[in-house]
Design brief:
alpha/beta, 30 helices, 42% helix, 758 residues
Length: 758
Amino acid sequence: MYKYPIICQTIENGQIYGVLIGTDLQCIERTAAAVRKRLGEWLSQKLRDEDWGYMYEPEIDKGELLLKKVRLRMAYRESKGSYPLPKPVTLNVPVVYGYSEEDSSYKCYIPWLDEEFYYYEERQLSGLIEHFVRERLEGDTPENIYRFLRGSEPWLETIRVQLPTYERQKNRKDHYLSEIFEKLQHTAEQLPVTRSVRSSLSIIPEAAWERTEQVSRLVDLLTDNKSNCIVIGESGVGKTAIINDAIKRAYQQTKNADGISFWRTTAQRLVADAKYLGEWQEICDRTVAHLQVVGGILWIQDLVQLAKTGGEGAEDSIASYLLPSIQNSDIRIIGELTIREYETLRRLLPGFVELFQVITIEALNQTQTLAVMHSFSNYIETNHHIKFEPDAIKSAYRLLNRYIRYDSFPGKAITFLTDCINYARKQKRSGIDQKLIETRFIENTGFPEILLKDELMLEMATLKAFFKARIIGQEHAIENLCSIICMFKAGLNDPDKPIATLLFSGPTGVGKTATAKALSNYFFDNGAREHPIFRLDMSEFQYPFQVRRLLGDESGQPSRLVEHVRKHPFSVILFDEIEKADASIYDVMLNLLDEGRLTDTLGRLIDFRNSILIMTTNLGAQSSASLGFITNSNATDQQAIRQHFRPEFYNRIDQLIGFNPLGAEQIKQIAKIELDAICKREGISKRELQLKFDQTVIDYVAAVGFHPKYGARPLQRAVEDTIVTKLSRWLLKNRNITKTTLHISYGEQGVDIEVTQG
């Protein structure tokens, strides 16, 4: 015996209007009993249909009625435009909700809007009802909205229908379909997701705010029973949210149709079980056959990879193998691509992309983005009881718009706000203000607070002191670094290029790498978990085929550089000894230096516009009068650099910074810095020891750690060999010594360590 809820309402002339929840069946009768009888007869007839009866089985076990108050603004529409009314109106929207045992989730129906949706926690219900009502009615005309204010208060009736006599046949059919669904779940995920899956996902609601038109168009394509579709847009514009929302709506519209289902997978998962040659083709054939049985539409999230997986080339790939099935409508596919990925797929397999209809998604403007951010904050406040202060949303938009250029709105806004919410939950905070927004942004990017806040003044003396403590003997380099930072602080750097593109020239051991580290420490080391500098030894790129080490291989496996920048877009990229790379590497780097972008072998864009690119070179060092550059304008050195690099490469470099040779006093300053760094090591700090180095130690390390050819580069090795080794042996013999000062000197007997109290 099945139970079905009916929502009833008294209308004109005292007649009763009834809608059978979860179906398209409705009627008007004189009494509620007549409504129950009429809908019961229709339902019994539907259930006796052996081919379609199972589609009319109840989806909720027990329906409950709720009147949800929603405030809306109405608008009059004329040919010249739309005119919102000044005061909102409050609607009592009737909804029916209940738990579905089959899907392990809750389901809600808004019958007057012909809307329905799943949810996975009871506290989500109120916010989701308001979202769907606002999306359908906000800004609508008074004529359409006032119909919700008419009529009496609705109520629920229930009808009971006996299980038809064909139960055994239907059970056999259900068992067969259940087997097919189970087999498909090895290669794909069924959508919409069940409650158990949803509970493991993030708090982000599956809603494509401000994308009603695009969602509706995709729903039309999904429900016409023949179209394949590609959603194209830059990263962050909301392609995934649009597809998710469209699938939910298409599912609601087609759930009473025969064999309609939606599935999500990737190219790798599709053929993950293939173990021997030719098996992946068999898996594809089975998947196509199974999808035909259940009317499945397959969402492939990495469509370009489909043309890279399978054989040795695109013509032997999964995409090429599925081509005839797509042409014959044996399988329907939807996917999402960036513009560059779409062009890559067109180049690899032009006949494949021609079978798809394209929906292009543009980035949202400022007004739309702020509307999405406010909708998201309202959802979070309603469902998770965390309130965003008004200034927090404005601050988040300003920071993201100015500094996060590698992603688009609204995706980067939702991602960042979600991070702030998770942080607030861990801290047991009920609100998110501007200070928390700025704190999380600093921790995520590493930017210093003084560069992010316009109200904070940048003191040049403090800035120079920061670099002078880390860079010895290179006043010209320090001046250049300060100029770069001042330009960035003022917002005058080109937003369509890397923050800076620099070439450090000079002999070995004069501080080029140390300068790169100092710049990365200032820009990106505020709260960063990893050191924000990535070094590439360009001597590993001496041959043209080694360009894959920059871009990744043909299978789509990213290079170390690509992987680093995707995870850490805010960092310094150091191309060490750039002159040793093959000329073909320079060709690849032209677009990187000019626009801050690289495109990998799959057409995916890697954005370097939040990075600082530093190249080092020894060109001209050997031809100089001394072993270093005498002055920063040395014509011989610049001439050697210009002769090596083509003009189109050289002219894309923002600044050429020459490094001077180091004198004896400067070597001693560097030695003192290296010795002081020992105090920060774990073996010293955990014992709470203080180290005081006598001038004799500094002089000795400077003497043995300097080489006329390699400059100060051997200093670190000298410190390790002469000081750290001696100190470690001494500490092992004196394990009980803690919370004291060690005086370290150098004499005729070598390094001497004494315990002092001052």
